[in-house]
Structures are given as C-alpha cells and as structure tokens.
Amino acid sequence: MADTLAMGDHGSAGHGPKDKSKRDFLVMLPVAGAVIGAGAIAWPLIDSMNPSGDVLALASTEVDLTPIAEGSGITVVWRGKPIFVRYRTPKEIKEAEDVKLSQLIEPQPDSARVKPGHAQWIVLIGICTHLGCIPLGNKPTDPRGEWGGWYCPCHGSQYDTSGRVRHGPAPLNLWIPPYQFLNNSRIKIG
Fold first, then answer.
1. What domain count does the chain have?
2. In three state form, how does the secondary structure of 79-132 look?
3. Which of 10, 118, 155, 167 is catalytic?
4. 28 in the same domain as 6
5. CA 7 to CA 13: how far, in whole Å?
6. Are 60 and 153 within one domain?
7. What is the model's pTM?
8. Residues 91 and 18 both lie in one domain
9. Domain range for residue 83?
10. Known active-site residue 155
C-alpha cells in the first residue's frame, strides 16, 4: 500500500499551479513573437502609404499679394489645381454685392465668398464646374464675359467677379479653397 501511495504521489507530480504558469508562459512566448513579427512586417507597408515630402510641400501654398495690381489677378497652383487670386476694384465689389440672389443659378451672397475685412480679394479654384475646364479671365487680355469675372470658352459658362455662375451649362459657382490671411499682404492656401 505504501508503494501504491508513493506511486500516486509520483504520478501527480508536475501538475501543480507552478507548472500551469510555465505552460502559459510557453504558449504566450510564440504568440508574442508572432505579434511582434507581424508588426515588423506591417510597419514598413503602412509607413509607405504616408505622403512623400514633395506631396506634403504642396499641401499648402503661400501667396504674396503685393505684386497684384487692383483689377487684375494671378494664377497659382495648389495640389495640382489652378487657384485664381484676384484683387477686385471697388466697382467690382459693389456689383458683386448688389446682385439679387434670385438672379443666380447657385444663390450665394458675395460676403460668403470672401474673408471678412478683405472683400477686395477673391480666391477661387479655377476649374469650371461644368466639365473641369480652366476658365479665362485672370489675365488682363482674357475675355471675362458679360459679368466681368471669368469665361469658360469650352461651353460658354460665365462667372461674375465673385466667382458665381451667371450663364451657361455650369451648375455651380467656382469653389473656394481653404485659405487664410497671414497678414494684409500674404495668404496661405491649404
């Protein structure tokens, strides 16, 4: 009987709480290694999806407004799109403000299209909202249409000095990019 008791004790040896924690550790070790390995493989792939330095450089563009004469504009590029920046005359501002919204295809007051305190500056994405052409009107020699803004020669869409569509197949006003005034003579687009 003593032999049986001794065997029973010997047969149950190695199955206590101490051995269970060893077994858990041995299971967790390869699982942790697999997670770390997967992370090491995935990180370069995920990191490669970040925009490159040249793309980040185009994320915003600063524009010096001092060389722009009253009544004229310039075209700059932001994120591959033409941006029209025009210094409007007092007459152009008054005409844009006096338009009855009922006359517009996409009604929007001029005050909603310019920054407060900077009504003389209009900043627009220079892409026609009909088929994506680039309207004319930023150069002094360009045709500007009946409303003195921009004219798209492809299908005849015309925009006023606030960039609002006034005639033609274009269904929407010229879009306004995100921009802010850094000071009275400099803006940041994007």
1. 2
2. CCEEEEEEECCHHHHHHHHHCCHHHCCCCCCHHHCCCCCCCCEEEEECCCCCCC
3. 155
4. yes
5. 10
6. yes
7. 0.69
8. no
9. 56-189
10. yes
